[in-house]
Amino acid sequence: DNSAAVASAGGMFDRKSLMKLSLLIPVLNYEETLSETVRRIRELPSGEAHEIVVIFDVTVPEWREEVERLRAELADGFSVRSVVRVGERGFGSALRVAAAAATGDLLMPVMADLSDDLAVIPAILQKIEDGADVVVAARYIEGGDIIGDTAKQRLSSLYNWLTSVLTEIRCGDI
Fold first, then answer.
1. What mean pLDDT do residues 157-166 have?
2. Of all helices (H) and strands (E), which one includes residue 85?
3. Helix 64-78 crosses helix 34-42 at what angle (to 10 degrees)?
4. Buried b / exposed e across 52-67, counting CB within 10 Å, b at 16+?
5. 85-144: per-residue pLDDT in tens?
């Protein structure tokens, strides 16, 4: 059972030349479950072939040493590439920096806190191979679900609902 439903659209270009996947993982300061997230990615079918790029936004100087230790551990143990930004933050800008550092043809953001169901990655790649130009895995569409029950996840669900109420825009996931 996948916790995220997969939806796709399109079919405009040759898939055979577009199969290197770069997984982009933004981290604010330090994420306790990052190593586990990376390990689970590597255990997926063809997971060893995927490029993993972690972008650390270090806003608390005390975390810098731990981030450097973790970077070395991930590089040595899992061939993870990473970038550190000091004094900067922002999910969107972190993803842009990670995308610029990535070498893959396909880009996929992944959350470091294990809130994403990584088991959907092969299904996403299959949709691309089958001709989709865009594939979305979302928690709040039919077939989707939330893994865990953290305050951040409850806030995301509330924000999603609030956006639809206040703007009349139906959004699958924010």
1. 72
2. strand 81-86
3. 10
4. bbbbbbbeeeebeeeb
5. 998 888 889 999 999 999 999 999 999 988 888 988 998 899 888 888 878 777 666 666
What phi and psi values does residue 158 have, to the nearest 5 degrees?
-65, -45
Tokens 């972008």 — which residue? 55
Instruction: Please tell me the distance from the alpha carbon of residue 121 to that of residue 118, in angstroms, as a whole number.
Output: 6
Residue 5 near residue 173 (C-beta atoms within 8 A): no
| Residue 54 Cα distances to 1, 95, 113, 139, 158, angstroms | 27, 9, 13, 22, 27
- The count of other CB atoms within 10 Å of the CB of residue 51 is 18
> 154 with 115: CB under 8 angstroms?
no
Q: Which two tokens stand for residue 103?
A: 């070498």
pTM beyond 0.85, yes or no: no
Instruction: Please give the Cα distance from 8 to 21 (Å, whole number).
Output: 17
